[in-house]
Amino acid sequence: MEATLQAEVVAGHPYEERPKTKPIIQLEHIHKVYHTGDFEVHALRGITFTAHEGEFIAIMGASGSGKSTMMNIIGCLDRPTKGRYLLDGVDVSKLSKDQLADIRNRRVGFVFQGFNLLSRTSALENVELPMLYAGIPTAERLKRAREALAAVGLADREKNHPNQLSGGQQQRVAIARALVNRPAIILADEPTGNLDSRTSVEVMEIFQRLNEERNLTIVLVTHEHDIAQYAKRVVVFKDGRIKRDYLVADRRDARTELEQMPPITDDEEEEEEL
Ligand code: ADP
Ligand code: MG
After folding, report:
1. Could you tell me which of 67, 43, 51, 76 has the C-alpha nearest to residue 189?
2. pTM to 2 decimals?
3. Full residue range of the structural domain in which residue 231 is found
């Protein structure tokens, strides 16, 4: 399994050789211990890791190795038990709950495996929601939500509710929602876990484009080698520690792959996925 991992995805240079830009995520000796009843789970055992602006990182590793725990800490949804975390130079371990929520809302966009959309609410309203919390005025909210939906190719679906959209379209709405507060970082935990292979490529095309055009830093958890290969760098977790950190040698280009696939119509897409 380990040998396969290395052979299939991480055949590139060790990460250190890459030219560095501004550090945006800095984890220093991070530990996380969960207390459940009588016993403790040591989910992270000393993670030291830096992501620079504009990186596109795939996090891999067996189930239970601490990937989601780390994403929750990076996203300020949870705090480390021990260690220091700097987000864009700010030591978040020292912030209050309110300050944490504020920095999360402004700096980080989340995309989850299960989409997490509100079901009785249109695509447009789902995308507007984070801006409501951020106190952005109505007209600006509407403008930005429409722009974000257009950026993910869903300008014509703004009135649809999630159950009127395919899985891939729902995930694109979730990506649009993650973008509207203009975050510096996108965190995606198994974003293609519920999608078929073509739709996964479509979602990866959006991530690659956002990474290139907007210099967004993307950290994406996946257990699929195919998906990790769209990233620039792969970090492999094992038992709460980082085991490998490599550049992707043969990076896949989602746009080129989509161009080479036979076209499907919107109707077909809906039949397949609904
Ligand atoms: P992964 O995302 O790599 O599958 P997780 O970060 O979810 O791994 O979990 C790491 C370890 O921490 C696992 O042993 C898991 O059972 C445990 N864990 C995760 N979240 C909690 C929690 N809220 N309470 C107790 N244990 C947890
Ligand atoms: Mg997980």
Report:
1. 67
2. 0.89
3. 2-273
